[in-house]
Specification:
Layout (H helix, E strand, L loop, with lengths): L1 H18 L5 H34 L1 H6 L5 H31 L9 H22 L3 H17 L12 H7 L3 H14 L5 H23 L6
Helix pairs in contact: 1-2, 1-4, 2-4, 2-5, 2-6, 2-8, 4-5, 5-6, 5-8, 5-9, 8-9
């Protein structure tokens, strides 16, 4: 699980390291943080989707529903467990990407808040997909499609100056845009007022998607 979460982002940055070194530090910063977001989505959105769809298909949720456990506790336990499992690949992606791209890190203590608020909304979206998809195959396809769409919309991997206006507008509706912005400021600096908006949006997405998961998940009547 940890290895798979590192392969795609590090492979992407290795490829870009040959072609983007002369594009300037701003573009390299977007490539680094965009691939960190990619790592978060692979390790959380996609894998939480798989976990919830598997639990539904195998009847595990029916079993858990017979136990004296609230479904919100189960949801949080799964989401937080994948957050913890993703930390090694996240750290390796950040450090490896900084070396590959030659981007100096300037870590700010706010990173301790940024990482959970970037990760939990992605995991929550994965839990929602896994809870409503009819089959694990459908859940996997939806998860992969959403991952690619969120990476392509807005200034996640690509600076806003290189994107058409319509992509910038659509990107405002993607949590990946705010996650990438928050990570750029926390990892590379400088910290600006934008961080407040980024974290507020991510916190809002987190609350909404976790509430929706609780509503949509099949469970006993309390």
């Amino acid at each position: 699980m940890v290895i798979l979460g590192m392969v795609a982002p590090l492979g992407s940055m290795f490829f870009f390291s040959f072609f983007a070194r002369d594009t300037g530090p701003d573009t390299l910063a977007y490539i680094l943080t965009g691939n960190v977001v990619l790592a978060l989505m692979f390790d959380n959105l996609d894998k939480v989707t798989s976990r919830f769809s598997f639990m539904r298909a195998m009847g595990n949720l029916d079993y858990y529903a017979t136990l004296p456990v609230q479904k919100n506790v189960l949801i949080l336990a799964v989401v937080l467990s994948f957050l913890l499992l993703s930390l090694p690949s996240l750290v390796f992606t950040i450090l490896g990407g900084a070396v590959l791209l030659g981007v100096p890190l300037a870590l700010h203590p706010v990173i301790l808040i940024v990482i959970p608020l970037c990760t939990i909304p992605m995991a929550g979206i994965g839990a929602l997909i896994g809870s409503i998809a009819r089959t694990p195959q459908e859940a996997g396809s939806l998860s992969l499609l959403l991952t690619l769409v969120m990476l392509g919309l807005g200034p996640v991997l690509i600076p806003p100056s290189r994107l058409p206006d319509v992509m910038l507008i659509l990107g405002r509706f993607s949590p990946a845009t705010y996650a990438a912005s928050a990570l750029r400021q926390a990892l590379l600096g400088p910290l600006t007022g934008q961080i407040v908006l980024d974290l507020t949006v991510l916190a809002g997405v987190m609350v909404v998607v976790l509430w929706l998961v609780g509503r949509k998940m099949d469970w006993r009547q309390d």
